[in-house]
Amino acid sequence: MLRGMKLLLNWLLSAVALMAVAYLYSGVTVASFGSALLAAFVIGLLNVLLRPILVILTIPITLLTLGLFLFVINALVFWAASEMLSGFHVSGFGAALIGSLLYSALGLCIDAVLAPTRE
Questions:
Q1: Which of 3, 34, 79, 111 could form an S-S bond across to 96 if both were Cys, CB 3.0 to 4.6 Å?
Q2: Domain count, the chain
Q3: Are 85 and 50 in contact (CB under 8 A)?
């Protein structure tokens, strides 16, 4: 599969996953599929640009918590995306934590489906 096509499919499936999170959990709301597309893009952008900086800055506390602080970083990125957009809303930090866990689990499923198979 072409790399650009795979990236586009991953983005579309991530938006579907975000809609699924909103359907499964009432603390996360998405106004429309267009809002989900934009939110999936912003979450991906924040994960590429902001998350590595946060991970490096919080290495001591991440080591003390045996890596569990990474869940907090994921929730903060999820919550930050909701604060930037009007069609995507997370009701609080607890909702961001649960929503980011669900979104990450669905993202793992998407990555498993889109991973190249070896023969």
A1: 79
A2: 1
A3: no
Residue 6 has pLDDT above 70, yes or no: yes
**Alpha-carbon distances, residue 89 vs 12, 42, 86 (angstroms):** 19, 13, 7
| The pLDDT value given to residue 117 | 60
Distance CA 4, CA 52 (A): 24
Q: Would 55 be classed as within a structural domain?
A: yes
Q: Examine residue 119 and state whether it is found in any structural domain, yes or no.
A: no
Is position 99 within any domain?
yes
Range of the domain at 26: 3-114
Task: Name the pTM for this structure.
Answer: 0.90
